[in-house]
Amino acid sequence: MATRHSRSAARLMMAPAVILLMGWMLVPLTMTLYFSFKRYLPMRGDSLERGLDWVGFENYVRFITSSSFWPSVQATLLIVGGVLVITVILGVLLAILLDQPFWGQGVVRILVIAPFFVMPTVSALVWKNMMMDPVNGMFAHLWRFFGTQPVSWMSDASVQSIILIVSWQWLPFATLILLTAIQSLDSEQLEAAEMDGAPVLARFWFIVLPHLGRAITIVILIQTIFLLSIFAEIFVTTGGSFGTRTLTYLIFQRVVDSQNIGLGSAGGVYAIILANIIALFLMRIVGKNLDR
Amino acid sequence: MARAVSTRRKIITTAVAWAIGLVIFFPIFWTILTSFKTEAQAINNPPLFWGFDFTLENYAVVQERSDYMRFLWNSVIIAGGSTFLGILVAVPAAWSMAFVPSRRTKDILLWMLSTKMLPAVGVLYPISLIFVEFGLLDTRIGLTLVLMLINLPIIVWMLYTYFREIPIDILEAARMDGAGLRQEILYVLTPMAIPGIASTVLLNIILAWNEAFWTLNLTAASAPPLTAFIASYSSPEGLFYAKLSAASTMAIAPILILGWFSQKQLVRGLTFGAVK
Q1: Record: contact A279-B20, CB cut-off 8 A
Q2: I need a surface site. Which of A168, B29, B92, B152 has the fewest CB within 10 A?
Q3: In chain A, what residues touch B121 (CB-CB under 8 Å)?
Q4: 63-102 in B: which are within 8 Å (CB) of A?
Q5: pLDDT digit string, tens, across residues B82-108
Q6: Is B67-270 assigned to CATH 3.30.70.560?
């Protein structure tokens, strides 16, 4: 029963948040769009004051046709895909495990969730040096213990290393969400199936997995959005070399290292479009939830 | 769960769960342990799990040589400040959307969410340009503003899902009794909204503390928070295991503790209320 008075008050209360976000979105976006159609190399004397040359879609074409574009798409797909597969599969298994009764549930839950709270630069450096260093890392000790040659992870298995680090960071997120979803599963249904003699695998496949469907979708969509823009993990480990230059990192290098703003902006527009396609799916699911 | 579980099965589950938990936690455990070793013992072969000389020297050296407290202070100001500002802007917005919903409320909420999806790297240059223009580059206030803006959609969403659970009947009863908007907010709503706001604050501090794109790209010498401070250890000359461990331990300890309190809110906040 909202009166007209409270309606206008409500609009007023919403205004700061809406205006701020509108500015935060529109201003930089317009600038990126503008730069993407311009030749803008500050190191070669292009400047905003003297005006920039309009180059049409040249930056867009050059970004896609450059030799580093397809490798970066490949690296992005490998890393995002690899992390998704690992975190979703292990997340489902871990969630089922943590849902079983056992001693010390609370403590184990804390141990499993902890990596999510470690800042990205710390987890990347700890993994790079303390775990994966070819001489002093824990893996090297393990490898030597079993009599094999230690691996130079960061150069010889760089993409796998990044996938491992990022999976470690995101496994808690997937586990936590899937565990929350599993706990809402009606246990009577499972018991009935068990009494009817359904084997464990069948119970998992026909009851647990369908129940988790929505949660898994949400995990995949949200993680994809965050994973597409992972930055610090690559910045402090390989710096984009050894095949770990993702689309995000390529754009970063174009803008910051080679100072080609026009080209970087065109890349940025591609990244924005890509993120929006995924976001559209996510929003549909989240939006449906709002109607209930 | 009322299901009876055999003791044998429970023992096996316990063993497997603990083994997995310890493996996942190991890098953090190892970092904390190494931070108490001397540099020589930190790279000992075989690795030392016990029998090393326990020392706090690394912590002292990290503080002394790199002025750790300054970075910590930057982190506290930026994470705390952006959360405070965000709450200030988001509470009225979420309140009005939860209690005076209109036809457009859903669209506005979804649109806010969509701003969160904007890839940061796509707007890196414009933001740096604006920062240079307004003298915000490498300042705490600049970073505070950016982190407030990137987390604002999550804050609004989280608050909205909490506020929506407050029974509307109570508000109507208060209105019938002649409570004005101000009284309504002050005496009826605030006490019921505090738990939701507290969880939102908690999650947002964690997110802001760990943010590692803007904090790395918009700071240089004077305003870098802990994320950027740790990144400086990636250069070879700065690499000492025990000191890296001590610095890392100090950087993650406050958030690990906060994080353990906020497990439940994490799910709700990061899935925008889609999973509770």
Answers
A1: no
A2: B29
A3: 229, 231, 248, 251-252, 255, 268, 271
A4: 89-90, 92-93, 95-97, 99-100, 102
A5: 999 999 999 989 988 888 888 888 888
A6: no
